[in-house]
């Protein structure tokens, strides 16, 4: 009997180089933009939102919906969802890109840094409180709650067991099992 070595002969470094080149090629061909995040080894593909806006939205979303247990990649998927919505409506794209420019302008005026470069969460939250009634902030806050929390991978991290309608409902499947609430 022959034994086949199923291990990949591709090193992590080679995989990342190949993935980056492929993603850049796809982004260039599709007319979109690709934003790379080398620290966590993932990338975002943007079509309507600028790369700067995507990075600011990632930090902003983490500030509005903070979860230490969630990796940036979950927030990035939510930003991609927002980008997809903005790609369908140019007015939304203008609102988001303009809102990010305004937020960065406020951060630069007050702290001499862009919003995403501010190390202090307290400073970033103060800026968000200043714009919380704007259409930009309300749009991001409203859309991100669905985009972030509608990911099954996020459910697992937060201890939510997911919908149970297809399993007979909660009445017959742990109605009194509320263990997932205590760690939220």
Attribute tags:
single chain, 184 residues, mainly alpha, two-stranded antiparallel ribbon, 7 helices, 2 strands, globular, disordered N terminus
Note down, in words, how this protein is organized.
The chain is mainly α and 184 residues long. The protein has a domain at 33-160. Helix content is 57%, strand content 5%. The protein contains seven helices and two strands, in the order αββαααααα. The chain has helices at residues 12-30, 51-64, 72-88, 90-111, 121-131, 135-149, 152-158; strands spanning 33-37, 42-46. A two-stranded antiparallel ribbon has the order 1-2. β1 (33-37) and β2 form a beta hairpin. α4 (90-111) crosses α6. The longest helix is centred in the middle third of the chain and has 22 residues, at 90-111. The protein is globular. The N and C termini lie far apart (51 Å).
Characterize the largest beta sheet: strand count, sense, and whether it forms a barrel.
Answer: 2 strands, antiparallel
Q: CA-to-CA gap between the ends?
A: 51 Å
Number of strands: 2
The fraction of residues in strands falls at 5-15%
**Shape, principal axes of CA atoms:** globular
Average pLDDT over all residues? 80
Instruction: Give unreliable regions as ranges.
Output: 1-8, 24-30, 36-42
* Rg for CA atoms: 20 Å
Secondary structure category:
mainly alpha
The topology string of helices and strands comes to: HEEHHHHHH
In what order do the strands lie side by side in the largest sheet?
1-2
| DSSP summary: helix tally | 7
Tell me the helix content: 55-70%
